[in-house]
Amino acid sequence: SLNCVEWNLLPPATKEMVAQAEQLTGRFQGDPSFEYENPEADAEDAEGVAEVAKESIMKEEARLVATIDQIDRAVGIIPRGALMKTPLGSVCENRNFEGLSLTEAKKLSSYFHFTEPVNLKNKTLLEKADLDPSTDFLDSLEHDIPQGSWTVQLERGDSVVVLRSLLWLGLTFYHVPMTKQYGYLYFGTGEKNLDLPFML
């Protein structure tokens, strides 16, 4: 939105947009038409200078789309049991989900990444034996690398559990135990905290 009254949907992110956005550093300018130049673009080839220059420019709108995609993939999370996998393989909302208990809500193992699992595929059959295939089909936060990239806090007299990402500073997830209320939001600079391994 340019006037906070009329809103438009952003286009979906492509692999090229994400790859190009990962090479950019610095904060957003606030102007969707602002153009970033890729500092690592190789413009030495005299024949392809025009093509390289064209490919090395990225508009802020495209960078925003790519950054949102990166944040969703890296730190978009849901509580355990909020979604379920049917025997046919489709994923849907679990109508029986009534929220996590306060004890479970304090554990990182009770929260999953809301994206395709990576670590789950590498587990042995013995490790998978204790998992419920209908609810434990995503990667748990407890195995995130580096260890300690999440903080768990209790707010409002232990009535709200808040998780904050130290990898994407500004990402906050909340869950009200024993209810269906949960969600996450991001108020940050759009920069990944690359210094996190040195901070822990």
From TrEMBL:
GO terms for cellular component: axoneme; kinocilium. The keyword Cytoplasm applies. InterPro entries: RSP9. The keyword Nucleus does not apply. The lineage of its organism: Eukaryota, Metazoa, Chordata, Craniata, Vertebrata. Belongs to the flagellar radial spoke RSP9 family. This is Radial spoke head protein 9 homolog. It comes from Calypte anna. PANTHER family: MITOCHONDRIAL RIBOSOMAL PROTEIN S18 (PTHR22069), RADIAL SPOKE HEAD PROTEIN 9 HOMOLOG (PTHR22069:SF0). It is found in: Cell projection, Kinocilium; Cytoplasm, Cytoskeleton, Flagellum axoneme. One of its GO terms (biological process) is motile cilium assembly. Keywords: Cell projection, Cilium, Cilium biogenesis/degradation, Cytoplasm, Cytoskeleton, Flagellum.
